[in-house]
């Protein structure tokens, strides 16, 4: 073994070094690998399209200029200096970007990449509204948002495609106070936020008309503490989170898939999501394949909990759908936030 030293490591073939780097689940690991030596630096690309595990970032930057990023792979929090985000709200992910909203006299809306500093301006809605991304977070060519304008008491949905100068916007003439919504292939799927089951409205994104109403799934006697609706692989999923005591061990999830049977839509219960890992935040959600990340299990949900009876602080949790157990992720910085997938 005396012949194996640093020179031997630096002499590894470039294609082998690159292959090893694609197996690292976190972009920060690839950056450290590039710092080993000149050979590794030239062989490892941060622009590689290999999948990365997401980071969780706080949604409200307030007056801070450093964004705190909690990495799932390292279980650590990293700081990225982003003076451009001072006072901004991060309203959800859109591909390589996060939707960035700045309030006040110089209000603005843009897609922003915190790693590169690249910013794409978007038309800004009127002042005083709150909104969030409701399109698939893994896509950036089409961005859809749902919002509420308090002074006008308006609930609305809006859509913009890359290159457009204006939003395609519609007010919703439906009961959608503090609801959840997702956009997919020309339609919005809207649920009201409530402790009990609520029907789903399917809205045409072009006309704003309600196409049909889908009856809620049967959850038995469970109360709904929180719900998400999302699109993954062309399917619409409705996720209910049930909490009976406020303790981690009593959290349960119900997952339902929107099916069309004999021309009618209905929710069908999903017992397992297979090799998928489901990531939920306060806005929407997305799935990744666990097989792309060695050492990680599928059929699980990563989600945030406002607080529980034991910790009394925001938690990032992992729920195993197979055995129904929930655990808090270690070293979480305790900031309520949204997911981003780090990418240059």
UniProtKB/TrEMBL annotation:
Domain of life of the native organism = Eukaryota
* SMART domains reported in the protein's UniProt record: FBOX (SM00256)
Q: Where is the F-box domain?
A: 12-53
**What InterPro entries does the record tag this protein with?**
F-box-like_dom_sf, F-box_dom, KIB1-4_b-propeller
- The protein's name is F-box protein skip23
Record organism? Rhynchospora pubera
């Amino acid at each position: 073994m005396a012949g194996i030293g640093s020179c031997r490591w630096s002499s590894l073939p470039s294609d082998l070094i690159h292959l090893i780097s694609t197996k690292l689940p976190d972009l920060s690991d690839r950056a450290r690998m590039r710092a080993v030596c000149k050979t590794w630096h030239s062989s490892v690309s941060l622009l590689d399209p290999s999948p990365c595990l997401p980071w969780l970032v706080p949604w409200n930057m307030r007056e801070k200029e450093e964004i705190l990023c909690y990495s799932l792979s390292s279980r650590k929090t990293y700081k990225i200096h982003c003076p451009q985000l001072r006072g901004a709200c991060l309203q959800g992910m859109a591909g390589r970007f996060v939707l960035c909203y700045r309030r006040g006299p110089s209000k603005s809306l843009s897609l922003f990449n915190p790693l590169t500093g690249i910013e794409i301006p978007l038309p800004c809605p009127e002042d005083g509204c709150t909104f969030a991304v409701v399109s698939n977070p893994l896509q950036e060519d089409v961005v859809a948002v749902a919002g509420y304008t308090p002074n006008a008491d308006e609930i609305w949905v809006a859509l913009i495609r890359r290159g457009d100068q204006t939003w395609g916007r519609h007010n919703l003439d439906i009961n959608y106070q503090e609801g959840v919504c997702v956009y997919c292939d020309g339609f919005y799927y809207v649920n009201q936020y409530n402790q009990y089951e609520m029907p789903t409205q399917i809205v045409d994104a072009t006309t704003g008309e309600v196409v049909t109403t889908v009856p809620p799934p049967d959850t038995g006697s469970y109360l709904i503490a929180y719900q998400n609706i999302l699109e993954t692989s062309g399917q619409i999923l409705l996720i209910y989170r049930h909490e009976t005591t406020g303790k981690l061990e009593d959290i349960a999830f119900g997952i339902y898939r929107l099916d069309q049977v004999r021309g009618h839509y209905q929710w069908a219960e999903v017992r397992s999501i297979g090799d998928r890992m489901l990531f939920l935040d306060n806005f929407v959600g997305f799935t990744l394949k666990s097989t792309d990340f060695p050492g990680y299990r599928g059929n699980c949900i990563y989600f945030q909990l406002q607080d529980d009876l034991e910790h009394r602080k925001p938690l990032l949790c992992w729920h195993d759908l197979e055995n129904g157990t929930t655990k808090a992720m270690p070293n979480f910085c305790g900031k309520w936030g949204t997911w981003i997938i780090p990418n240059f």
